[in-house]
Write a structure and sequence with these properties.
Number of helices: 0
Helix content: under 10%
Strand order of the largest sheet: 4-5-6-7
Structural class: mainly beta
Largest sheet: 4 strands, antiparallel
Length: 110
């Protein structure tokens, strides 16, 4: 759950619906996606995305993206951040994706 007023994301267990963690992110978070055991949070106010580890619930990295990002989707090992320009972000790396052969892969969780 994105919490725009407090610039945090609340992670809730789907097993018992308890709050697992509340994680600080960028300014005005507005969307979140989950894939490859990572949460990707779109921060509209700070023009970036925050990657959160899906096991430890800690921030892995924050990455600048296009102006006023508003959405994120996950598929084929990539996150796509919706902004006035669409910016693919590798789901297997925390940097913008280049051509198909330039994407690094996240290591698989144990």
């Amino acid at each position: 759950v994105v919490n725009q007023g407090s610039n945090t994301v609340t992670i809730i267990s789907t097993k018992n619906y308890n709050v697992v963690a509340t994680v600080p992110v960028g300014t005005s978070p507005c969307a979140v996606a989950f894939g490859n055991n990572r949460f990707t949070v779109v921060n509209r106010g700070s023009n970036d995305v925050t990657f959160i580890d899906g096991i430890s619930f800690t921030v892995m990295k924050t990455l600048a993206v296009g102006t006023t990002p508003v959405a994120v989707a996950f598929g084929n090992d990539h996150f796509v951040v919706g902004a006035p320009e669409i910016m693919p972000v590798s789901g297997s790396s925390t940097k913008p994706a280049g051509s198909a052969g330039e994407t690094e892969k996240f290591s698989k969780p144990p």
